C-alpha cells in the first residue's frame, strides 16, 4: 500500500511585498500606476517614501521642496491629521507658508473675511444680473439661457472663493491648528 502524499499547501509572506502562493507560484505587488500606490499603501509607508523621494512627494502634494521642508510638512500633516488634499489647498491659499528651509502654518484671520465679502459681492452682482435679465424684453428661452449661464458662472466662482479663502480656514479651525499657532505666535 503506497504512503499518502502530503498535499498541504503552505503560503509564505516574504517582506510584505511578495508571497509564495502555492508550490511554484510567486506573487509580487507591481503597481501599474502611481495612483494605485497612493490608494493601497498605508500613510506611514507613503510618508517614509515621500520623505526620501521628492518625486513621490510631488505626486502627493504637487510641489518639490527640500528634504527638511518635506520632513516639516509631514510632521504638520501628522500632528493635525490633515489629508494630502488639505495640505495642497492650505498651500494654495497661503495658510501654509513654504520657504526654502522652512514650512509652517501661518493662518490669517483676514482670509475668511475676504472670502465671505467677495462671495457676498458676487451674489449681489449675480442677483442684479438675473433681475436685469428678467426685466428685459428678450424671448423666454434667451432669458432662461442667460440665467443658466449667470448661475453657472456664479457657482463656479463661488466654488473657487470657497476653496481658496473659506474652506482652508475651516480646516484649520477643525484641526485645532488655530489655537496652537496662536499660542506659539
Give me a quick take on this structure:
With 185 residues, the protein is mainly alpha-helical. 64% of the residues lie in helices and 10% in strands. It has helices spanning 34-40, 43-52, 54-61, 67-80, 84-93, 110-134, 140-175, 177-184; strands spanning 11-14, 18-21, 26-28, 96-99, 102-105.
SSE inventory with pairings:
Blueprint (H helix, E strand, L loop, with lengths): L10 E4 L3 E4 L4 E3 L5 H7 L2 H10 L1 H8 L5 H14 L3 H10 L2 E4 L2 E4 L4 H25 L5 H36 L1 H8 L1
Antiparallel strand pairs: 1-2, 2-3, 4-5
Helix pairs in contact: 2-3, 2-4, 5-7, 6-7
Summarize the helix and strand pattern as letters. EEEHHHHHEEHHH
Q: Identify the overall geometry.
A: flat
Instruction: Let me know the number of strands.
Output: 5
Instruction: Provide a count of the helices.
Output: 8
Count of all domains: 3
The computed structural class is mainly alpha
* Percentage of residues in strands: 5-15%
How would you classify the quaternary structure? single chain
Rg over alpha carbons: 26 Å
Largest pleated sheet:
3 strands, antiparallel
What ranges have pLDDT less than 50 throughout 5 or more consecutive residues? none
Share of helical residues: 55-70%
User: In angstroms, what separates the terminal alpha carbons?
Assistant: 85 Å
Order of strands across the main sheet: 1-2-3
Q: Indicate the mean pLDDT.
A: 86
Keywords: Membrane, Transmembrane, Transmembrane helix
